[in-house]
Amino acid sequence: MKTIFTILFSIFIMSSSGTDSKYLDAMSSAIEKMNSSETIYNLTIAANTFERISSSEKDKWLPLYYAAYSYIQISYQEQDLLKKDPYLDKAQKFIDKALKIAPEESELFALQAFLYPSRMTVDPMARGMEYMGIMNQTLDKSIELNPENPRSYYLRAIILLNMPESFGGGANVAKPLFEKAQEKFNKFKLATSISPNWGKEHNELELNKL
What we know:
Layout: H1 2-35, H2 40-56, H3 62-77, H4 81-101, H5 106-122, H6 124-145, H7 150-161, H8 171-187, H9 200-209
């Protein structure tokens, strides 16, 4: 009986390992293609790929994360203001699903905060006050869940950089946060090979301008 149990357990481990390997390979390939995508068309293909992966890996939040991230990137590229919200609605759908799987994941709250400025660009006068408060609350939550997540500080720095000095923003206020983000980026260790790993280069570019 003990031998049979050992054999069955070994088969289960080998099967699980093979499944994880296929998942990691699929995700790594999709992330690589997403990162090299420079057009809305290619980013849409990337989003669709992550959505397909998520339909097979229903217990994993990262495919949903990257599907949302792809659509948020599309929204920032889209010049037609009327087309931005539909892309962001799709991104929000994936974030909501991911939060049901990983409600305490700092990266998801950082991604949510990354979505809000794109919402604001559709109608800054009407949406600015509404989303600014929500965005800061979301970043607070991201930092609370993981004080070492550099993307939270980078995004807050970007917000302050683009905020008028009369409202408490500007380069002088943003610079210390860019510096803190750089410190966090330099120390940051990826949880897995497919974990979120964006923002460092842009943070350095912004910091070098100040």
